[in-house]
Amino acid sequence: MITAIVLVHTAADRIPETAQAIADLDGVAEVYSCAGDVDLIAIVKVREHEQLADVIAGHLSKVDGVVGTDTHIAFRSYSKADTDAAYSIGLD
Question: How far apart are CA 60 and CA 11, in angstroms?
Fold first, then answer.
């Protein structure tokens, strides 16, 4: 599974509607409204790299209210749950 983190700049008066429209797109796993330099962060999960262009450039960037995007491709995922599981192997 390929994960992309998409930072989304939106029109200020359209944030909730834009977030919901993005969340409804195939390939979008989650959308977060946040404080800071961007208005929304979308987590896109697809099986093939070619699908990223379809989801992000083909659909997400064209949602009404989206002003711009900045996409980051994830190489590896780390989480506390993964670390805890690795260290607890054989300790049952």
Answer: 14
Q: Is 45 exposed, middle or buried (0-12, 13-18, 19+ CB in 10 A)?
A: middle
Domain ranges of the chain: 2-87
CATH (residue range 2-87): 3.30.70.920
Written as six digits, the tokens of 92 are 């049952």
Type of residue numbered 16: P
- How high is the mean pLDDT of the chain? 92
Instruction: Return the SS3 of 68.
Output: strand
Q: What is the pLDDT of residues 16-60, one digit of tens each?
A: 999 999 999 999 999 999 999 999 999 999 999 999 999 999 999
